[in-house]
Amino acid sequence: MYENQDQQSFPPKDLPPRPNNYLVLAIITTFLCCNVTGVVSIIYAAQVNAKWEGGNYQGAISDSKNAKLWGLIGLIGGFVLIALMMLFYGAAIIAAMNSGGY
Hints:
Elements: H1 23-32, H2 35-53, H3 57-98
Helix pairs in contact: 1-2, 1-3, 2-3
């Protein structure tokens, strides 16, 4: 069974490990925080495995880094925006309560 397999179908031993595609981070970013950066992150994440299997190892590593970068930008930016909105609306509510309703 194993003696008929082509040895070229296995990757060489000196390849770096397959990079993480950060697809879970991209999906979480898309649904929870920022759709724009999340979609960009999903696109990069989807390209990682295809480039790796096609032999473009540097492209796969680059897309992995870009997927992580855009996912983190979306998460951090989304949470900062949410915090700012909470501060703004909280200050507006406190100001309205202190003015006596006028």
